[in-house]
């Protein structure tokens, strides 16, 4: 398993940032590079766990499923659509700082199936996912700070 984290302090309250992240199907409205996003299925009985969205980025399609949801501090989801030999996930952690300021950390995790090059493959995969994750973090900051 390999993890890469990026943090950024955003000039917005945690609740405002949370509202953007928790509107799970609307990723394309604020994330640069995302061509389309929509909800595919609901969690059971209104519980967001298990809620899925489809994300279109160029010719690539991903399905993301919420696996942890603790408002307004934690959102985690598994990512399907990566190469079959690996699995990926993202975890958003929000930590309120001063009033009107929140530190947001996005951690990308990649796991690969056992093979001799596993550590190298996981590091490369994590860097690729983290590169996209850094762009998501920048887009979130831009969106939340411009709509203050």
From TrEMBL:
It comes from the Bacteria. InterPro entries: Polyketide_cyclase/dehydratase, START-like_dom_sf. Pfam families: Polyketide_cyc2. This is Cyclase/dehydrase.
């Amino acid at each position: 398993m390999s993890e890469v984290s990026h943090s950024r302090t955003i000039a917005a309250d945690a609740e405002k940032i949370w509202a953007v992240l928790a509107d799970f199907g609307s990723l394309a409205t604020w994330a640069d590079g995302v061509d389309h996003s929509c909800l595919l299925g609901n969690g059971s009985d209104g519980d967001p766990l298990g809620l899925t969205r489809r994300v279109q980025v160029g010719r690539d399609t991903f399905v993301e499923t919420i696996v942890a949801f603790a408002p307004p501090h934690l959102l985690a989801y598994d990512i399907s659509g990566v190469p079959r030999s690996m699995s990926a996930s993202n975890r958003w952690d929000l930590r309120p700082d001063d009033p009107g300021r929140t530190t947001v950390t996005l951690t990308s995790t990649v796991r690969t199936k056992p093979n001799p090059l596993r550590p190298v493959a996981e590091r490369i995969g994590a860097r690729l996912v983290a590169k996209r994750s850094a762009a998501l973090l920048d887009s979130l900051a831009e969106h939340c700070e411009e709509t203050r």
